[in-house]
Structure formats: C-alpha cells, structure tokens
Amino acid sequence: MNKGIVYLVGAGPGDVGLLTLKGLKAIQEADVIVYDRLANPRLLSFAKPGCEMIYCGKTPDHHTLKQEEINALLVDLAGKHKVVTRLKGGDPFVFGRGGEEGEALHEAGYPFEVVPGITSAIAVPAYAGIPVTHRHLTSTFTVITGHEDPTKDDSQINWQRLGEDPGTLIFLMGVGRLQGIVQQLMRYGKAPETPVALTRWGTRPEQATVTGSLDTIVDIVEKAGFTSPAIIIIGEVVKMRDTLAWFEQKPLFGQRILVTRAREQASALSEQIEALGGEAVEAPMIHVQKPKDEAPLLAAIEDLARYQWVIFTSTNGVRYFFENLLACGKDVRALANAKLCAIGTKTAQALLDKGLRVEVVPEVFRAEAIAEALQGRIASGDEVLIPRSSLGRQVLIDELEKMGATVHDVVTYETVEADLPEGGLTSLLEDRCISAVTFTSSSTVHNFMKLLGNRLDLLESLKLVSIGPITTSTLAKYDLKPDVEAEVYTIDGVVNALKTL
Predict the structure, then answer these.
(1) CB-side exposure of 254: number of CA atoms within 13 Å?
(2) Residue 441: DSSP 8-state
(3) Which family would the database say this protein is a member of (predicted)?
(4) With 113 labelled, which of 150, 180, 189, 204 sits at a CA distance of 20 to 30 A?
C-alpha cells in the first residue's frame, strides 16, 4: 500500500501573512490540497504546478462534503498521493475537527502531521483592536464553541462557571445562537452592561465589528445584518478597541485588488498590497517563459565582446539572459567590454545583484526615455544588444538607429497568455468583491479583455490602475480610462497610485 502522508494544516483566520512557515512548506510540497471556505484562496497560489485542488467548504446551511465524507476522502487520497495537504481555516484542533480526520487516518494506517494555525480566537480580536488579555483588565480567556444550543438540558458548557468568570469569553461560530448565549450568561450572573463585540471576516478586507453590551448586542447585530463567520468577544477588554484598533487604519483596508502580473512576478505587488491592509487576488493574465527559439540569444551571448552597449528593459530580461549566460559556461566577465543601461531601478538592482553597475538609468521608465538618456553616449557604429521580451516595442530600435547604432534586438523571453480556466476571470470578478484591477503592461490589458469577453458590466464597479502611459493607451483601445495612472512607472508607483483611490 502506498504510504502517503497527510498534513492537517491550519490556514489561519484569513490574512495570508499569518500562515506559518511549516504550513507554507506543506502547501508547496502537496500533490493534492483539500481546502475549506475559511482558507484564503490565495494560499493555493503557493502550490506547485499540477497540484490538484479539492474544495470541501461548509456553510451553516450547506455542506459540500459531510465530515465523514471528508475523512474518507483524505484516506482515499493518502493511498494515491505522496503528499496530501488538508488546509483548514484557523487551527485544526480548535473546533476544527482535525482530531476526527487524524483518527480516520490513524485507523486506516496512514501517517499524518498536524501543522497548527493561528486560531481566530486570538487573531480576530487582535485585528479588531481587542486584546484577549490585558494586565489591568483580565489575566484569563476562555474559548467556547458557539454551535451548541445554549438552552439544551445536556449542555457540555458549564454556563454557571462562565457566568461567574471575570475573564474574556470568546465564542466561535455563535452568531446564530447569540440570543441564547447572552441570556444564559446573564441568567448565571453576568452583568447586563458587560461589553460585547462581534467581528466578522476578521483579518480580511470585509472585516467589520459591532460593539454593545449583553443586554443590547442582539438588537445591534440584527440591525447590522451580521452573519457568520463571526466571533463573539465578551469582557472588559472590548473597551480597548477605541484605543487599539489598528487594522482598519491601514490605507488599503477594505480593498480586494486584482493583480494581473505574471505569477513569477506577482508576489512583489501582492506583498505590498497586503502590507497596506488590502488583499491581493492573483489572476495572472500573462505567463513568462523561455523563447521557443533560443538560438539568436545563445549566438549573441557567444559573441558578447562585439557589443559596446547592452540595454536591459526588465528584470525578466536580466533573469533569462543570465540563466543562458551561465548555461553557455560564461559569467559576468563576458560583459567586461560593454556599458550597461537599465530601464527602471528594479532592473538596475537586478543587475547590481549580479555584481554589475549600470551606467544609465533614465528618469522616466519607458523606451523613449532610454533613447533620450543615451543621446551623446552612443557613437555612430556602436553595436547595441537589447535582450528583452518578444513583445518589445519598435520605437527604441528606431531611435538608436537614428544615432547610428547597429541594434541587435534579441528575444530573451516570451510573454504569452496565462492559462486561466474558461470563465475563471468572470467568476472571480463576480464572487470575490474585487474593488480594483492593476494593469502593469499592455499584454495584461489585452489578455484581461479577451478573458472578460462580453461581460463589460463587471467593469462598472471596478477601479482601474495603470502602471504608465503605454498601458493607459492600450486601455484606451478598449474605450477604457484608468481611474489613476502611476506617476512613476514601477510597482512602487502602482502601489502609491492605489493609495489615492
């Protein structure tokens, strides 16, 4: 029997950054991932190519799979795959039924490991500005299931003890039982004026909190239309929210932003969005790959000594150029005779990381600015190598040839359409409450519009962000105008533009 291992991984409460390093490793190594509705879908982007994804989400009124079916599924998958990762919201062993899944695997003879996650019981209050303990208020907190009917006679919850407990009480999954919970607590001694908070979708853009007291909170929740998933926090620590609420103050809080860059580059933009309180949804419109015909690039590398200038127009160009340089048995010394030009500080930094300083970086990061910056530097008869994308613009070649240079424009990588599933973009826009879309190149615009098809209605509620004038002009071809264009044509510029929305 094939002895696959199953990782029962806590995905945390929603913020991707709260996943543990061990949890990330389990996702990256998985052959198949079984995930629920409380696991942030962006965590799936860390999986290796070809990893199978199986959704088994549950809502209070609908189960895609019953728990017994999930247990059986994990056992079945463990017999077919080397690594199975069960991705569960929060922590597997804090009302996560991970114990039952572990039992099923043990009985079937399959090894498993538990990877703890940050439970919503502490993370969600923290993101709402409510510490579960505070030296001047309470030294204890208790986590209680909110699923159980508070009025049943054979309750496993000791309501008398909770009513007398001076510490913080945290009920998970208890919105539907709120009235019974507060009634039981007041019945057993909790003062009606005891502070209460409910936070739903904590750590995510939809995070919202309402506060009140035991005798008012039910009406407040009903008027606010609060639904699951939300947690209930009861105790004096709720009063700290006015002082300690921090997450809602971040500049991109409440925004879910579509990142259309190639997956190989998306993380840099996604991480900045998330650091500012937004949530990045990665839907790569393009994919970067080796050129089908590498012969021209390899020939240029073999004859590098002939070039007086080498112009790099992107970090991808740097990456693929040096991969081929090393594959040819050469290193940076092969560029000893050439001066270097880079379009943008990130590209210049990528070269500096290789130990190479750049002579010219234009102030404006576009092809026309390169030509302007090289005026007076390039002599008639100079040979110039431009290792770049298959979609490189002709304008740079034309301007350099006007200076008398001989230009060798070599395809170093190809930009192709990403393989999103049919209907994947439209369903994403319909389901994920996207507030803005970032376009970082003309190719991201073209492929976005191709995948959007005739669903132009989905653009009505979206803010469009362009990295610069070339991308903006491409949007104009589709009769679209960005809500904001980056002042500096870089990812940092896009992030700064997002802050102004």
Answers:
(1) 9
(2) S
(3) Belongs to the precorrin methyltransferase family.
(4) 204
In the beta sheet, which residues pair with residue 34?
54, 86
| Catalytic site includes residue 36 | yes
pLDDT (0 to 100) of residue 265: 66
In this predicted structure, what is the pLDDT of residue 371? 80
DSSP letters, 8-47, are EEE-BSS-GGGS-HHHHHHHHH-SEEEE-TTS-GGGGGGS
User: Could you give the 3-state DSSP secondary structure of residue 387?
Assistant: strand
pLDDT digits (tens, 9 = 90+) for 54-85: 998 765 555 578 889 999 999 999 998 999 99
What is the torsion angle, in degrees rounded to the nearest 10, for the CA atoms of residue 89, residue 95, residue 96 and residue 102?
A: 150
Name the average pLDDT for the chain: 90
Residue in 165, 173, 240, 382 annotated catalytic: 173
Question: Quick check: is 457 catalytic?
Answer: no
Domains along the sequence of the chain with CATH: 5-118 (3.40.1010.10), 122-249 (3.30.950.10), 256-285+418-499 (3.40.50.10090), 290-416 (3.40.50.10090)
| Residue 82 contacts residue 74 (beta carbons within 8 Å) | no
DSSP string, 109-143: T--EEEE----HHHHHHHHTT--S-BTTTBS-EEE
Q: 161-207 pLDDT, tens per residue?
A: 999 999 999 999 889 999 999 999 999 999 999 999 999 999 998 89
Query: Could you tell me if 206 and 434 are in contact, meaning their C-beta atoms sit under 8 angstroms apart?
Result: no
R_g (Cα) of the chain, nearest Å:
28
Helix (H) or strand (E) holding 413: strand 406-417
pLDDT tens digits, 403-451:
999 999 999 998 887 766 656 788 888 876 899 999 998 989 998 998 8
Question: What would the pLDDT profile of 331-352 be if each residue is shown by its tens digit?
Answer: 999 999 899 999 888 899 999 9
Helices (H) and strands (E) in the chain, counts: 18, 22
Taken as a whole, the chain contains a residue count of 501
Q: How far apart are CA 384 and CA 397, in angstroms?
A: 10
- Which of 22, 25, 31, 58 is catalytic? The answer is 58
pTM: 0.78
Q: What are phi and psi for residue 209, nearest 5 degrees?
A: -135, 135
165 counts as catalytic: no
**Annotated catalytic residue: which of 15, 36, 91, 382?**
36
* pLDDT score, position 54: 93
User: C-alpha angle with apex 162: 158 to 163, nearest 5 degrees?
Assistant: 115
